[in-house]
Design brief:
This protein is an alpha/beta fold and about 260 residues long. The protein has helices at about 20-30, 45-50, 60-75, 85-95, 120-130, 145-150, 155-165, 175-180, 215-225, 250-260, and strands at about 5-10, 35, 80-85, 100-105, 140, 170, 200-205, 230-235. It has a single domain (about 5-260), classed as Alpha/Beta hydrolase fold, catalytic domain (Rossmann fold, 3-Layer(aba) Sandwich), CATH 3.40.50.
């Protein structure tokens, strides 16, 4: 009997890895071996991470990618990588590097080459990008900022509950790197979207997402058009950026399992 295939979950900015707990249980029951490591500097719990915000400061896209690559190097086989927000960008980088067997990028952070820049995305990034000094700092969202960027498609009560339960400080540097990607020759937000020999990729967009508007996720998918490798896209029109951790997370998770089954994974 073969060992269960590992699945590595990668969280995004401002959300602790413990928010994947429901996904871990679901994937484990489906026969996988899931893990959800944090970003470099994250502590084991939400409260511990909040208490030491300086530990996550000045960590960039390459630092985060390298941290997950190191974790993956200790696994027996190449994993499936599931990432949300900036975690979706990291998942694409790991897949292109040949580190992952397949990747699922949910509301993925903007990769180099994506052109749309909707107002909602600009507004969502302002808490960080409005102050250049935030590039090397850790930044914490307010409840109202979280409500706009993450919780706009759920009730105000649920948004506040998600904020209280799962939010942590996040490094500002990845946002600065992604926002400048199209003006930087060697950007860490670059992904080899033309690579033919790689595992399958699924990109998921949320139609009500303010942080990564669906047009941005769709534009990322379009960049893969010439690769020839499996690159699928699915939109959930009524979902916002909290789609992997709010009350409707199971709809997204079930779809990812169905897609993986269709890929023979």
């Amino acid at each position: 009997m073969s060992e269960p295939r590992p699945v590595v979950f990668v969280h995004g900015l401002w959300i602790h890895s413990a928010a994947w707990h429901g996904w871990l249980d679901l994937y484990r029951s489906a026969g996988y071996a899931p893990i959800a490591p944090g970003w470099p500097g994250d502590a084991a719990t939400v409260q511990q991470t909040r208490a030491n915000a300086a530990a996550v400061a000045n960590k960039g896209i390459d630092d985060i990618t390298d941290g997950y690559a190191q974790t993956i190097s200790g696994l027996a086989t190449k994993p499936i990588v599931v990432g949300h927000s900036f975690g979706g960008l990291i998942a694409q980088k790991l897949l292109a590097a040949g580190t992952a067997a397949a990747a699922i990028a949910i509301d993925p952070g903007q990769i180099k080459g994506v052109k749309p820049l909707p107002f909602a995305q600009i507004r969502s990034g302002l808490p960080v990008l409005s102050r250049p000094g935030n590039r090397t700092r850790a930044v914490t969202l307010t409840k109202s900022q979280f409500r706009y960027g993450f919780g706009n498609a759920v009730s105000a009560q649920e948004s506040d509950e998600l904020f209280d339960t799962w939010t942590i400080p996040g490094p500002g540097r990845p946002l600065f790197e992604a926002s400048a990607a199209n003006f930087t020759k060697t950007s860490p937000a670059a992904v080899d979207t033309r690579k033919r020999i790689r595992g399958p990729l699924l990109i998921i967009g949320g139609g009500q997402d303010h942080t990564v508007p669906e047009v941005v996720a769709k534009a990322a998918h379009t960049l893969y058009a010439g690769s020839g490798a499996v690159t699928d896209y699915r939109a959930f029109p009524d979902r916002g950026h909290s789609l992997v951790l709010d009350h409707g997370w199971r709809e997204i998770a079930d779809y990812t399992l169905t897609w993986l089954n269709g890929q023979g994974l």
